[in-house]
Amino acid sequence: MVKARKYVVKNHFQGVPKLSDYEIVEEELPPLKDNEFLVKTEWISVDPYLRAYNSQINAPYDQFSFQIALVQESKNPDYPVGTRVVSHKGWCDYTIINPKLQSDFLDTVYTLPDLKGLSNSLALGAVGMPGATAYFGFLEICKPKPDETVVVTGAAGAVGSIVGQIAKIKGCKVIGFAGSDEKVQWLEKELGFDKAINYKTADVAKALKEAAPNGVDCYFDNVGGELSSVIINQLNVFGRVSVCGSISSYNDDLDKLPKASIVQPALVFRQLKVEGFIVSRWRERWSEAFTEIITWILNGKMKPREHVTEGFDNLFKAFTGMLAGENYGKAIVKV
Amino acid sequence: MVKARKYVVKNHFQGVPKLSDYEIVEEELPPLKDNEFLVKTEWISVDPYLRAYNSQINAPYDQFSFQIALVQESKNPDYPVGTRVVSHKGWCDYTIINPKLQSDFLDTVYTLPDLKGLSNSLALGAVGMPGATAYFGFLEICKPKPDETVVVTGAAGAVGSIVGQIAKIKGCKVIGFAGSDEKVQWLEKELGFDKAINYKTADVAKALKEAAPNGVDCYFDNVGGELSSVIINQLNVFGRVSVCGSISSYNDDLDKLPKASIVQPALVFRQLKVEGFIVSRWRERWSEAFTEIITWILNGKMKPREHVTEGFDNLFKAFTGMLAGENYGKAIVKV
Predict the structure, then answer these.
(1) Rounded to an integer, what distance in angstroms lies between the CA atom of residue A276 and that of residue A258?
(2) Which of A246, A265, A274 sits opposite B246 (nearest CB)?
(3) CATH topology for the B2-125+305-334 domain
(4) How many A-B residue pairs are in contact by the CB < 8 A criterion?
(5) Of the candidates A113, A274, B292, B303, which lies 20 to 30 Å from A195 by C-alpha distance?
(6) SS3 label, residue A43
């Protein structure tokens, strides 16, 4: 018998999630059945969508997220003891997985990709769901061409920092928006962004006009809100917007969304295309992204950064810290 | 020598256009040169984009719009005397046209299509630019499937009323928003909309939820603003939005646009696609639309309605009346 702990979300969050919205539940895991295996969690991801989906599902529920775990016992020949798996089992230290029960994307289970010597934890970031999000969400929806100007918001985050680096690799001019001068420094000096702008202190419209005097061709949107309106209103004819997230409003009720300047005149007169997506639509192709991203990292063309919090008991802190923008790159927890 | 009159826009409009923003200029037309021909205007179109473009070009300028005219003298063998032409020469009673000088879409000149006995004036509406706008903007961008639910705003207008009828022809369920109970009656009783809603008096979100309990698949947007936000927030997964216009904001300054509830959460979580367009992108294919629309009208499947104002001197009144929503269907002026 194995004693397992997991975080259960008890409530619909009101604004910023509170520690009291969670309960850590301890349970004895039952013996394995056919096709099942027992895993011990090593790395857990915290991401903005954990906040967003809370409005859309009924509590209580086990806090989901991607995680990396080691198979310790197995009644499934595809996942023998010693295998490492990526799953969506979330904030737990031990759990039982039955890959045959996958009914939708959120039941995803797959063997850790061959990371060619890179840290396993990257399978939660650049070589995981966020990397696939950046890769497909940017390349498939924005369809960037060399020399085009690309804007990324949430540029210092897990997805944004990868999008900006892919855009540079593809020969684009890249402008990133982030929430502190230190992040701006990192984006410009370490990641090679052509320009980064602190949206909290800059006159955003003016700063963007200066950074992109010929307008913007592609916009990868992680944040939504007024910042998005300002950027969309500076897009060139036939500009493309990939909407990945709307973190600026995730703490708001869905029926009391904030207001921002309308963008329809820009959409019409500049003939813009705006598309939202969830990365599950490319699930069958994630490995394409992983293969290419691993090569870029090994060649030094991409520098994935991780923001690591230690300890199962610090998951909540890591989560709300990420929501507050404390992370540089991918926020993860080492169990 | 022919004496011609034309409306010249002297100013950037401030809010609703004023009569004093226009000057009627009289001029003697010079003798024809090679390739030129002289026309006498018979029908003139007034459209929302006449207001919108005023913010984007420098005054003074001749008030452009589509018009139908009769060739009275010609030094161009392609346009002999007696030919009727559709051009973008706008609010004038006589003018000289040189089709060789076409440098962009707004210099468009073409021979009146064969209307199979229908009124010539339809070449400014259902069988003209607005018809092509409805046809391509809806079919190419929304890509509607039978039994899908389609919402149209500005549903009683020149483009919206055609979009709704095309959607019915394609087997969709059609819900229209318009600005009066009389328009609602017309859309439901005469045009066969499944439901029409007076956005000025209804609780829009509630009325739409009742009319479309299974959600909305396609949205053809003529108006923008908060109404669009409400509708987009009721779109189904993989819903499509075609943005044709933003008339709710055309009287506002482009640098002081109104605010509306954000739509990014809906875009992401419902994976929506929103695209703005100008009908010039399908200019080479307009005749496809005209051929099909003429057939629909002759078969009784489509009922184009015209809102006719008489007299060259009433152009301004027809224009501002249309902007105020007085028209049912296509607003045109008989010279």
Answers:
(1) 18
(2) A265
(3) Quinone Oxidoreductase; Chain A, domain 1 (3.90.180)
(4) 126
(5) A274
(6) strand
Q: Which amino acid, residue B203?
A: D
Angle at B317 between CA B315 and CA B319, to 5 degrees: 70
Sorted by sequence, the CB contacts under 8 Å of residue A208 that are 6+ apart come out as: A151, A175, A197, A216, A230, A231, A234
Q: What is the DSSP letter of A88?
A: S
Tell me the average confidence (pLDDT) per consecutive run of 10 residues in chain A, 335 residues long: 95 93 97 97 97 90 97 97 97 94 78 97 98 98 98 98 98 98 98 98 97 98 96 98 92 86 95 97 96 98 98 98 96 98
From B205's Cα to the closest Cα of chain A, the distance in A is 11
**Where do the domains of chain A lie?**
2-122+305-334, 129-280
ipTM here: 0.94
DSSP-assigned states of every residue in A62-83: E--B-EEEEEEEES-TTS-TT-
Query: Which positions in chain A touch B260 (Cβ < 8 Å)?
Result: 259-260, 262
* Contact predicate A134/A174, CB 8 Å: no
Distance in angstroms (rounded) separating the CA atoms of residues B16 and B146: 40
CA–CA separation, A238 and A241 (whole Å) = 10
Q: Do A249 and B264 touch (CB under 8 A)?
A: yes
Q: Which CATH architecture has domain A2-122+305-334?
A: Alpha-Beta Complex (3.90)
Count of beta carbons in the 10 Å neighbourhood of residue A262: 25
Distance (Å, whole) CA A269 – CA B244: 9
Annotation: CATH topology of A129-280: Rossmann fold (3.40.50)
Percent of chain B with pLDDT over 70: 99
Distances (CA, A) of A241 to A139, A257, B40, B96, B104: 11, 21, 46, 43, 27
Helices (H), chain B: 48-52, 129-136, 158-169, 181-185, 204-211, 225-232, 264-269, 286-298, 315-323
Residue type at position A133: T
DSSP A249: G
Contacts of A227 (CB under 8 A, 6+ apart): A153, A177, A199, A204, A248
> Helix, strand, or coil here: A182?
helix
How close A79 comes to chain B (CA, Å)? 32
Contacts of B52 in chain A (CB under 8 A): 265, 268-269
Q: Is the pLDDT of residue B103 over 70?
A: no
The type of residue at B125 is G
Alpha-carbon torsion angle A159, A162, A163, A164, nearest 10: 130
**Angle at B30 (CA atoms; ends B28, B36), nearest 5 degrees:** 130
Q: Measured between CA atoms, how close is B14 to chain A, in angstroms?
A: 17
Residue type, B241: V
Question: What are the residues facing B35 on neighbouring strands?
Answer: none
Distance CA B184, CA B189 (A): 8
Q: Which residues of A touch B (CB under 8 A)?
A: 52, 56, 221, 224-225, 228-229, 233, 243-246, 249-250, 254, 257-262, 264-278, 281
Nearest to B265 among A233, A257, A281 (CB): A257
Of B202, B140, B189, the closest CA to residue B166 belongs to B140
> Strand A94-97 and strand A61-62: pairing?
unpaired
> CA quadruple B77, B81, B83, B89: dihedral positive or negative?
positive
Residue A109, strand partner residues: A87
Distance CA A144, CA A242 (A): 11
